[in-house]
Protein: Aconitate hydratase, mitochondrial
Amino acid sequence: MAPYSLLVTRLQVKASPAQSAFLALSPPRKKRGPKQRRPGEERRHLFLLFEDSIPCSRGVSFHSSRMQYEYFELTKALGVRQYHVASVLCQRAKVAMSHFEPNEYIHYDLLEKNINIVRKRLNRPLTLSEKIVYGHLDDPAGQEIERGKSYLRLRPDRVAMQDATAQMAMLQFISSRVPRAQRGSDLFKDINQEVYNFLATAGAKYGVGFWKPGSGIIHQIILENYAYPGVLLIGTDSHTPNGGGLGGICIGVGGADAVEIMAGIPWELKCPKVIGVKLTGSLSGWTSPKDVILKVAGILTVKGGTGAIVEYHGPGVDSISCTGMATICNMGAEIGATTSVFPYNHRMKKYLSKTGRADIANLADEFKDHLVPDPGCHYDQLIEVNLSELKPHINGPFTPDLAHPVAEVGKVAEKEGWPLDIRVEVGKVAEKEGWPLDIRVGLIGSCTNSSYEDMGRSAAVAKQALAHGLKCKSQFTITPGSEQIRATIERDGYAQILRDLGGIVLANACGPCIGQWDRKDIKKGEKNTIVTSYNRNFTGRNDANPETHAFVTSPEIVTALAIAGTLKFNPETDYLTGTDGKKFKLEAPDADELPKGEFDPGQDTYQHPPKDSSGQHVDVSPTSQRLQLLEPFDKWDGKELEDLQILIKVKGKCTTDHISAAGPWLKFRGHLDNISNNLLIGAINIENGKANSVRNAVTQEFGPVPDTARYYKKHGIRWVVIGDENYGEGSSREHAALEPRHLGARAIITKSFARIHETNLKKQGLLPLTFADPADYNKIHPVDKLTIQGLKDFTPGKPLKCIIKHPNGTQETILLNHTFNETQIEWFRAGSALNRMKELQQ
Structure:
């Protein structure tokens, strides 16, 4: 239908779109003062095309993303009874998702369309989390939506893979036989030449961007270049939620999930619940964004966020910088949350502009109604934190949810016998608990706290100490989060101030946070205390020493503690003594959240994928000790699982660090057979209370867990693992699922699972099962054999039966629950999700 010139008698501004219609105002007439306006001159001509024929016999309302236009009955002189709106006239300027992919655009119009479809269906206000997640539904009109129950099929905007997990992800992608990634994807460096060449050539072959060694930590690079308000980003690292600081839903997954998305297959996620955290008041003094998440972790614990998105809102949000919000979202992984997110605001706009993305900020302004929660939306749980009353926290040791206000930790340390080297009145707690009070090392940086603001606040503390002639009593290390941060803090003098204090600036990498630390100052088994601004402090994670008491806190508190050298020091109340003998108190640090000028980008470390990759070769040597092409796992044989041996019954916490250790094992992340030699070496065997020591059911000898698993595999003995609460918390590393599958496991039976690990187990064809009655954990003994029945009639929601066969000939029957849906059951039957993908392709 041809366009008509329509007379508009009323215009009302309202940013709440229902249709994507572009409304072009005719050139405005010369303005006159109010007294000169002629009757009816407020009318303007609008040229419209409508996609759906709509009767014009009454007033009709339509919405653009900026305005609501109310149209009244047309004059009969036009002879128009109906008209048409064409979405093709949505002429907003196209804005690229990133500078590195100028032809890949942000599709807020599709987000808007899907949100409106879902809002109409649900007929209720939506949280921000729901808007972004439901806005990426593959079928918004037909998708079943029920928080905590239904499985959503989503279309993420992009995929990011860090080097430690990217190797296995790319090996799986190669195995999938998909010729090129269908979604924007990026790889993030490795230092080893062989692995470097593999990732670089694989990226070039399959159309994946590649960030070279020295670029920095994946999450900081994503924040600087790829995250934006409303994005749905999937990353093969559990701290991918860092991007929530820029208003995106950024979720950590295993490599198999990344493969599906790169292959163009809708990604499946159990519809998350939403935990609201209302922030009031404002941050001030020594209290930092890190203290917000340390406080929340203390409330929710390491599993309190499982299956939920944590959504921050309230007036207190505006007192937190964009990178501060990223810190909070980053550590949301430590409470088991699917992800965390903040609503779009002026702090995010400032950060986008400063990182060269003002065009994205302007577009986000236009769609802001979709980037904040609806008034009156419902949260499954609501927590309130008054930032004005919040005190600096230090959490640990051994778990990130053991929260202490700084003023109390030292007392606990003394009671527990922890080294007192770090005394922050944490001191009070440390003394009470007997923890070592002396702080041997203070470490700042990592993906959690390596922003320009973090480095500036730490430097502000350091300058005060230097002015009184003091340096660190503890060793002190600094890890910049990216090449851009490193170059900028070098230019602006922060790095030199921290060096002058006695600090050592490390490479732009994960470093000690992931166990890449060749520590020489202590012997293994020596009890000591370290304080970090990292996100995790699991046993042995940083230095492989199970007696290292690691605490996490803000970078400025770490700096203050490293100067004082003890947990008994509280910078808010305690005094230091300068070289002149005079006492002084550290003032609360103050620093700019962003540089006054532009960021210094440093060296260019990005490799664009070539347009034509047909001649690109990816080489994996058959004799390599670091890389190994994958063989498909065996299909389910159609039979019940009879007489499964118990490899280990795990006592207490069992994270992915316990299941597949990092540190020196990182070099084998691309070689499944070699890295399987670390299977469960950190888990505690309930039979003898030892790590990496289990009974071989055939020989009756105790030996390392991997050796026993290999013995069972060689002799055709299938086995299971029995676990405790929140099994598999921590990293997203799918090696913790691949290794047991590779060595012959068939099921993992626990009281409960962490979200990512449970999904990873399903993806690799294993059965993650939970006790219908958690007390049944106590009925199983390491010497028992188990039979799992019900697999021939394996259906969603129907428990499986487990027969426990004791050595004395007696038996017990218990029920095991599962969370498999129909699609996931097909993964099990096919042997893995990758096998199932190949079946569907054929």
Observations:
- Residues 273-386 form a domain with the Aconitase; Domain 2 fold (CATH 3.40.1060.10).
- The chain has four domains: 4-89, 273-386, 393-584, 641-841.
